[in-house]
Write a structure and sequence with these properties.
mainly beta, 11 strands, 3-stranded antiparallel β-sheet, single chain, Deoxyuridine 5'-Triphosphate Nucleotidohydrolase, Chain A
């Protein structure tokens, strides 16, 4: 699969996979950004892309940033029809401010096949063991 990338900023880096086995490719910031603890920011990548029809780009955490620093990506669905700049919404849930330098990895994107659901309104739903128990009802 080929994905066309357009640089919107001279400092932008083309996404790449760190390892050939990786499921997600890295996204990089074009700016020096300080994300203060508890702060939410939208971080620019300086790129736009053509995701092929029938696919979607899902923006996810870099596991090291999430587990070591408490940095969490929020949102993160780029549809095939979207050709604007890719941004990363991120919140710092950690205990310290975090500084990104321009060109540093901030998140990763996974390209996934999109299924189209067909919705049907019904009076009753099929019965299952769990039934209508609340989320989290399966215990610890």
């Amino acid at each position: 699969m080929k994905i066309k990338i357009k640089k919107l900023n001279l400092n932008a880096k083309i996404p790449q996979y760190a390892h050939k086995e990786d499921g997600g490719f890295d996204l990089y910031t074009t700016e020096n950004v300080c994300l203060f603890k508890g702060e939410y920011r939208v971080i620019p990548t300086g790129i736009a892309m053509n995701i092929p029809d029938g696919y979607v780009g899902l923006i996810w955490d870099k596991s090291g940033l999430a587990t070591k620093k408490g940095l969490k990506v929020l949102g993160g669905v780029d549809d095939a029809g979207y050709t604007g700049e890719v941004f990363v919404g991120m919140i710092n849930l950690g205990h310290e401010d975090h500084h990104f330098s321009a060109g540093e990895k901030v998140a990763q994107m996974i390209i996934q096949k999109r299924e189209v659901a067909e919705f049907e309104e019904v009076d009753e739903l099929d019965e299952f063991t769990r039934g209508n128990k609340k989320q989290g009802s399966s215990g610890k």
